[in-house]
UniProtKB/TrEMBL annotation:
Keywords: ATP-binding, Kinase, Nucleotide-binding, Transferase. Pfam families: TPK_B1_binding, TPK_catalytic. It is an enzyme of class 2 (transferase). InterPro entries: Thi_PPkinase (IPR006282), Thiamin_PyroPKinase_B1-bd (IPR007373), TPK (IPR053149), TPK_B1-bd_sf (IPR036371), TPK_catalytic (IPR007371), TPK_catalytic_sf (IPR036759). Residues 22-121 form the Thiamin pyrophosphokinase catalytic domain. One of its GO terms (molecular function) is kinase activity. It comes from the Bacteria. Gene3D superfamilies: Thiamin pyrophosphokinase, catalytic domain. Residues 144-196 form the Thiamin pyrophosphokinase thiamin-binding domain. One of its GO terms (biological process) is thiamine diphosphate biosynthetic process. This is Thiamine diphosphokinase. It comes from Roseovarius tolerans. CDD domains: TPK (cd07995). Its EC number is 2.7.6.2.
Amino acid sequence: MIVHESDPITLVGGAGLSDQLFDQALEVAPLVVAADSGADRALDHGITPRAVIGDFDSISQAARRALPETVLHQLQDQDSTDFDKCLRSVTAPLILGVGFCGDRLDHQMAACNALVRYPAQRCVLLGETDLMFLCPPAIHLPLTAGCRVSLFPMGAVEGLSDGLQWPIRGLNFSPDGQIGTSNAATGPVHLTFTAPKMLVMLPLDRLDSVVAALADSAARWPDGTNPR
């Protein structure tokens, strides 16, 4: 484990990222770890990351010169993305990922894959308008009526819901079958799922609610455990 923190971490990648979104993440998680060229983005924002993790195929030479060797952790593995490398190398109660959504569709899909590959991590990916996280075994979200709630399965999974306009009981979700985009809350939402396979997508302005919900000690899948 390269980084072990008892406080939340902002993990910054190299995709397009507004100063406003970066600052929003830092308000919740002021400690910064960078994925490869995310180091350039952190330095541009006046921040020296605690660690830089990746294969270093995109970090600039200027950033490498500006950072102490002790924070540079080059992992040569070419079978995983830099986001994947970071998730398996960082321990923290919460990770907010910025700079991983929006630029390239293949990178964004790979980030979705990594969220499911490391179900024990509490990680929320932030885009400019939406956020996304892997749903834990059970979660209670204090949403308001009309709030958009999208569910996208990354594998076969079933679940129960309370507080959704279109309940999910009895549905067999899968990436090539039933999905759950553009549902809506009727008030506070409670979700349970049978496996760590369901991504939840909400408007970005629900970040505080998500952070509070994920802080629940029960809101975590056991490391490496699939209850199915």
